[in-house]
Amino acid sequence: METVQFISTSPTALVNLIDEAVKKRLDDLKKDFQPKEPTKYVTRNYVADEMLHCDVSTVHNLTVKGILTKYAIGGRVLYIRTEVEKAIVKLNK
């Protein structure tokens, strides 16, 4: 075990040093280990009706063009909600 000696350091100064070090470590941990929000999958009908207000064939065409990425499980076609939102681009007039 290593021995550390504090010469001419007051107890208050030592506590402040420890507090600063612990706070810095906690801030680093908070940045790196934020809880991730679970991925939200939505159906083709939801994308068409609720998000884009279009027909399901339009969602299919956007998928064929590569604008939207589809995922499948058990024969169901799903889209990741955030990916659909990112596919919507802002137009400058």
Keywords for this entry:
three-stranded antiparallel beta sheet, 4 helices
Structure description:
The structure is a single chain. The chain has four helices and three strands, in the order H-E-H-H-E-E-H. The protein has helices at residues 11-32, 44-51, 56-64, 81-87; strands spanning 41-43, 71-73, 76-80. A hairpin with a 2-residue loop joins strand 2 and strand 3. Helix 2 packs across helix 3. It starts with 10 loop residues before the first helix and ends in a 6-residue tail after the last helix.
What form results from the Cα inertia axes? elongated
The counted number of beta strands is 3
Proportion in helices: 40-55%
Instruction: Using the CA coordinates, give the radius of gyration.
Output: 26 Å
Order of helices and strands: HEHHEEH
% residues in beta strands: 5-15%
Report on the biggest sheet: 3 strands, antiparallel
Main β-sheet, spatial strand arrangement: 1-3-2
Cα distance spanning the termini: 69 Å
Tally of individual helices: 4
Task: Tell me the structural class.
Answer: mainly alpha
Low-confidence stretches: none
Mean pLDDT: 89
